[in-house]
């Protein structure tokens, strides 16, 4: 009775310790959203005015007098990317007019690792690495500067968080810089320079060239032009009468002239030879022929510039001057109509015009709204060079940019392979358990080695400790907009959850808690050492023990209720789990958290896996689905519990009831009971059976009739 009272007092003391830690934890780690305006003043101390937050994407323009000195924006307005907690990290980012980062400040986050573990100053130090970098730089968290990639130091214990932050900053800044014209959009498909077939020629007529697309036509009537000016100040200037709407406004034919089948047919042999000799390497010629609205205009007369016509290719505009223009006096092809204007325009080599890539002829139509002011609109005609005229090399598709999830899995490739190998070894162990338990020395050594790997690699090196917070995050995601990306951001955690799910379906929660939980493995190894050095063990009576089981379920219910109101609040109170302190932060945090983790480990020296048995909300959550398990491979005999109590007394976490049944909600699948089950020197029913067998054999020997040899 005194032993029971002593144990109960220790339980009460432990629960008081939980409360003393969780209350200050809640007070210490509240992170309210920050006002961005003071931070903008901090980044731009010389500013005189902050423009309204406007545009697409939403951006503040920062002024010093009348001069623009930078731009600021929030990542949540542009690239709202969920982080580890399922919520985005909102940041204020500032760049200068040249696209150089001037600052990055955290405005709001909901990260459980940050809220309850890493000082926020470390998060700010990560963001402080961006000033001085350029929007055009390829930024990567971790690694080295290779292949044009700029390395940014990560944050130990919050790798996924800072990788999400980096993606949000880079995507937002890139979108803003492109919208402001600071950087150009990347070309998605690269078409190597095509070559015109100089030996391909066929004599033909005008109608054939127009019909197969060798010569293209841009046709506008007056209705089309009037509609283009609707809603502008020039809407009624030069507007056509109803009966004039169908009249031709402009008709323009255009073609790539230095293609033999086009140029020779239009110009004749001698003129074509003259043209090709005039063209320098890398230069190309197009023919433009038109009626109606003049594509020349009067600008080329005044300043030598053709301000009504340009060629577009790959987003680049090619304009022409008088030196690029030659008047085309005559066409020699059969069936050609008459044109008021005919020209040859030369595209110079520095434009890097590609004859194998589609291009457009753009006609600008201008209407005067005053003596000086005017409004213009444009119309485009497409041109595609026929395959029979050019040799197009294979298109080079740029390597697709990896998503954040793909980047993380690529960087964790080694961990994924090793962890997958460990899962295969564990599954093989479970399938061969009836053979292995007959070799207890080997199985004990193997199990202890596996637990060491779980603690050192899965726990401390990879940070692969599951938490009840993961369960709440999954439930909230499932009830809202579910996305696998949220759970794939940490490959180690994802694989462990998959392993936990598979083993739960097959054998129940016991396998994860007994083999793959780093904190559970650490407790078991420490207790093995404690027993080795003869530290006395304290075990409560079974009646007290089975009532203490309920504590972890009550903690789970309390945390679940909090998560329905606020996941951030539940994350803070989930510090009842010492996992983060022990493995993610490696005891580098505030003293109450360290004291709590050490207290649990010290109690574990006297009572095996105390936290797992009585306090772990994750274990309680996993055991909820224990009834769905398919297999029950832990063998029992009719004598187990009646009268034999050997396994029940030897079970070091008291998962076996006095009646001999195994409570699979509490079992950790150590297989010790199965070692006893197959051990004829240890299992009383087997020993009894062996004695009967020996007695039977002895009786048979006594009853044997001696044989007499007769000579």
From TrEMBL:
SMART domains: FMN_bind (SM00900). The chain crosses the membrane at residues 416-437, 449-475, 487-507, 553-570, 590-607. InterPro entries: 4Fe4S_Fe-S-bd, FMN-bd, NosR, NosR_regulator. Signal peptide: none annotated. It comes from the Bacteria. Residues 83-176 form the FMN-binding domain. Keywords: Cell membrane, Membrane, Transmembrane, Transmembrane helix. Coiled coil: none annotated. It is found in: Cell membrane. SUPFAM superfamilies: 4Fe-4S ferredoxins. This is Regulatory protein NosR. It comes from Thalassotalea insulae. The gene is nosR.
